[in-house]
Amino acid sequence: MFHCLDFRRAKLADPTRLPGEARKHLAACRACQDFARKVDADDKRIAAALQVAVPEGLAERVLLRARSRRLRPAWRLMAVAATVVLSIGIGLKTWLPAAHQDYARFAIEHVLHEPEALSSHRLADPREFGTVLARFGGELQAPVGKVRYMKLCPVPGGTGWHIVLDTEHGTATLLLIPGRDRSAGSVEARLRGFAATARRAGAGWYAIVTESPQSRDAIDALMQRRVSWRI
Fold first, then answer.
1. Predicted TM-score (pTM) above 0.70
2. Residue among 191, 186, 144, 179 at smallest CA distance from 163
3. Residue 48, burial from CB neighbour count under 10 angstroms (0-12, 13-18, 19+)
4. How deeply is 9 buried, as exposed, middle or buried, from its count of CB atoms within 10 A (0-12, 13-18, 19+)?
5. Distance between CA 89 and CA 108 in Å, rounded?
6. 3-state SS string over 168-230?
């Protein structure tokens, strides 16, 4: 049976190309028709907002360097960064339920939406990685790998970090997801050749995504040994 949740996942995975089962469900379900219209409208607003040229990495660099205790200048810089990412996250709350999130599955879907991150280099500074972890409530006790990619992204709960690491156990995506949802200690998922684990940590949750359960578990254990989290 193809349920509403199945349809919503399919619509979010690729809003413009729905599988046959999803199209059949859509034709018979008014709730999902309303949902689809909202997603399409949000996509159009996001596309329009992204027509404005913004220097690559501006939002991330602004937030990482707004470290001064002089509040007025810092808040101005943070406002610029927030404006850059706000348009991308406009529609998130229209499809994310208020209750406990399946953060592991979300993490895999996020990676599937941004495949270029696995082959790109962006803001790959280990000192900035340490700063990001510290602000999220984690203290780096030892290196967990080489940072290859860091980017601010819309996530459940607001804006989080999408990080790609080359570790001794292989390449992994690390998502830092802010939020107060503490209804589970950890969540696992497998989807389209990826495996993920999400755990409560610091200011919300972190999720590890790899191409196999074995590397996922090894890198997750590495994170737990080498990062001290406030929970």
1. no
2. 144
3. exposed
4. middle
5. 18
6. CCEEEEEEEEECCCCCCCEEEEEECCEEEEEEEECCEEEEEEECCHHHHHHHHHHHHHHEEEC
Angle between helices 4-13 and 30-49 (to 10 degrees): 20
CA 216 to each of CA 110, 125, 160, 207: distance values in angstroms, whole numbers, following the listed order: 16, 23, 20, 10
Residue 18 has phi, psi (to 5 degrees) of -100, 140
What φ, ψ does residue 139 adopt, rounded to 5°? Answer: -115, 120
Backbone angles phi, psi at 103, to 5 degrees: -65, -35
| Portion of the chain with pLDDT greater than 90, in percent | 35
| Coarse DSSP helix, strand, coil percentages of the chain, rounded to the nearest 5 percent | 50, 25, 25
178-207 pLDDT, tens digit each: 887 656 568 899 998 999 999 999 889 999
pLDDT tens digits, 39-84? 888 778 777 766 666 566 666 666 666 544 444 454 454 554 554 4
H or E element, residue 74: helix 71-86
> Residues 99-125: what's their mean pLDDT?
83
Q: Where are the beta strands (DSSP E) in 56-212?
A: 138-140, 146-155, 158-167, 170-178, 186-191, 194-201, 204-210
